[in-house]
Amino acid sequence: MRRSHTEQPGGNRREDWRRGKPLPPARPGEPSPATRRRPVLIGIAGGTGSGKSSVARAIARHVNQKNLVVVEQDAYYRDQSHLTMEQRRKVNYDHPDAFDNDLLYDHICRLLRRQPIDKPVYSFEQHTRLPQTIRVEAKDVIVLEGILVLDDKRLRDLMDIKIFVDTDPDVRVIRRILRDIRYRGRTIESVIHQYLTVVRPMHLQFVEPTKRYADLIIPEGGRNQVAIDLLVTKIRSLLPRTDRR
Ligand SMILES: Nc1ncnc2c1ncn2[C@@H]1O[C@H](COP(=O)(O)OP(=O)(O)OP(=O)(O)O)[C@@H](O)[C@H]1O
Ligand SMILES: [Mg+2]
Questions:
Q1: pLDDT tens by residue, 44-97
Q2: Is residue 172 part of a domain?
Q3: What is the mean pLDDT of the chain?
Q4: Mutate to test the pocket of ligand 1, among 73, 74, 190 (most ligand atoms within 8 A of CB)
Q5: Partner of 121 for a Cys bridge, out of 28, 93, 94, 130, CB 3.0 to 4.6 A?
Q6: Distance between Cα 179 and ligand 1 center (Å)
Q7: Which of the listed residues 53, 72, 93 should we mutate to test ligand 1's pocket, taking the one with most ligand atoms within 8 A of CB?
């Protein structure tokens, strides 16, 4: 999707804006410059079942909750309401094209401009977007998590901290089997079939290679307390002094 120059956050000062410098002075009616500081964007990638959500939750526990919002890339799976259920089942949900990254990029830009978004709601049972959306207000810390958040260069270029959660494949597949059977109504045969024919090859082709873009590789996800502590210290250092906790 092409965007006009004026749509870019920060307008002519795009480069400055991307480096996390304060936005240009406020125009009449806009919030004061102090509250218009660019939020911090953290990207958390990693294979299925690696513990991305646990890392996001661990960060949320340590950073003032009112200052943080988590955006899941899963919410941005493409709308497939025009497809039959049978066709939806056959879609490759581990390929970068499965995600509506144009919309995700647009929403992240809005949050970085401190504008609210209407986040889509994805149903794993219906394999498509639901009619309702969730209003999400901008916060000082935005955490974007999902298997392929480091695959899109536009998103990578916006991130202040890029993380890859690196967990052994045997642990990941066990977690995946339990989750899909317990919460997504799948059978063990269907989970294993999807893992071997789609999830694993797509992981090797698209997810694993994005590890090279990470600033920080976290082994064992949310249970790695040392990594979480280091990360939280870094995040706090990027926040205005009054907002630290
Ligand atoms: N409609 C669908 N049918 C089957 N699988 C789907 C569907 N939509 C998404 N998926 C699967 O969802 C996975 C993405 O979710 P992910 O594994 O990141 O969640 P997670 O278990 O929460 O990970 P983590 O433990 O790291 O938080 C993809 O591997 C994809 O195969
Ligand atoms: Mg998750």
A1: 999 999 999 999 999 999 887 778 999 999 999 999 999 999 999 899 999 999
A2: yes
A3: 87
A4: 74
A5: 130
A6: 9
A7: 93
End-to-end CA distance of the chain: 39
Number of domains making up the chain: 1
- Given a contact cutoff of 8 angstroms between Cβ atoms, the answer to whether 46 and 167 are in contact is yes
The residue segments making up the domain with residue 165 are: 38-237
CATH number, domain of 222, equals: 3.40.50.300
Task: Let me know if residue 232 belongs to a domain.
Answer: yes
Question: Taking the alpha carbons of 225, 227, 228, 234 in that order, is the dihedral positive or negative?
Answer: positive
Q: Sign of the CA dihedral 140, 146, 150, 155?
A: negative
Q: Which helix (H) or strand (E) holds 40?
A: strand 40-46
For ligand 1, atom 5, name the residue with the nearest CA: 93
Burial of 211 (0-12, 13-18, 19+ CB in 10 A): middle
Q: Is 93 near ligand 1, meaning CB less than 6 Å away?
A: yes
